[in-house]
Amino acid sequence: FEAKFAGYTTKLEHQDVTCQLNDYARLDVAERLAENLKSLVTRFDDYTRTAKIEQQMQELRDWTSGELQQYAKQRSTLDRIEELQANIRDQAVSFERSQSMSEDKVRGLSDRVTSIYTELNSDLQQRALAEDLNFLKDSLKKYALKADVDAFQQDCAPKLHFCVDSLKAFDDRLSAQDDAIQRMDEVLLDKAAKYDIVVMNAKLDQCFGREEGTKEFAAIKEAAAAVASELTAYIEAESERLKAFRPPDITPMIEEMHSRITLKADKADLVELYQLKANRIDADELAKLQDTIHRQLEYLSVTTFGLSKLCLTEARPGESKTLRTQQKSQVLMQSEALWSWILHNEPPPNLDTLRPPPGQKKAAGGDKPASAGGEGDKEKRTLDDVQRAMLEKKLGIGGS
């Protein structure tokens, strides 16, 4: 074995060589740099020399000095501007002072006018109009004086008291008479009328005598006792006769049937449960959504594992930076693809590469093939549809 691999280099030496090669540029990059350098050399031909630049700068200075002779110097201009600004500030201060004085005067006048207006308004509110006073004067002529009213009240008060006492006495007498009349009516209602007495005397002639009625009642009692004894004997004999023809006792069977009927569900409850149960299409949609969420979780677990591996494991000595950069870009690409998948329902392009191989799927799902599972589901759905149609027919529900 050692003789066979003696001519090969070790992994560490290979990684050292790879790291050293990363410090060098490739041949195509070096050729492109040479071409860019040649193009830069050709572009510098369009620029001028240093001596010519000095000459152009001198010409520019001469032209600038000639043009600036018609302008004032900055220092004198700034001094003049500062003087103007000081004058303007003084004028502004004096103007503000005079304006404040005029505003104080106007404010004092307005306050004085306001106070005068308030006093006049309060005085006017406390005084009545001339028309109201004349109307009140005319109205007072229709009323009597208080002294006259008091004198009239003193004259009328005893007479009114006498009238009230008389009315109370009359009311008491009237109540006593009403009670006496009511008592008389009750006594008269308890007594019989004269016509009723005449009718009763006429009916007495048609009634039995006392002795004859007593004999008749005794005969009736003897006949009733004989009939009662015969009836008792008949009832005892009839009960003995009916025992021979009595049907078997089915009370336990009826009770058991009643208990079974009680345990059964009501038709209205079955209809309500049938309407509340999930639809086949909704169940299939939920199954698809569950499968999609399961696949998203698998994709998220793979992405999280890659991110954890990058964050928790430190770079080994001699490990290629390009490989780690590729791993980082792969994790970012998977995260962005998962985000787009969740928001826009667009599966990532590398989803098939993250699925388990066929051997593992078979081991997880059992020895039953996928086609057999599909056929079994189809038969089960057909049987469920038949049972559902039968149940709808029994319950009287129109199936869709």
Overview of this protein structure:
This protein is mainly alpha-helical and 400 residues long. Helix content is 79%, strand content 0%. The chain contains 14 helices and no strands. Helix 11 (280-312) packs antiparallel against helix 12. The protein is flat, with a radius of gyration of 64 Å. 1% of the residues are buried.
Number of helices: 14
Shape: flat
Rg, Cα atoms, Å: 64 Å
Percent helix = over 70%
SSE topology sketch:
Blueprint: H1 11-22, H2 27-43, H3 50-68, H4 74-126, H5 130-140, H6 146-190, H7 194-204, H8 210-244, H9 251-263, H10 267-276, H11 280-312, H12 321-344, H13 358-365, H14 370-395
Helix pairs in contact: 11-12
Primary descriptors:
400 residues, mainly alpha, 0% strand
Would you summarize the structure shown here?
This protein is mainly α and about 400 residues long.
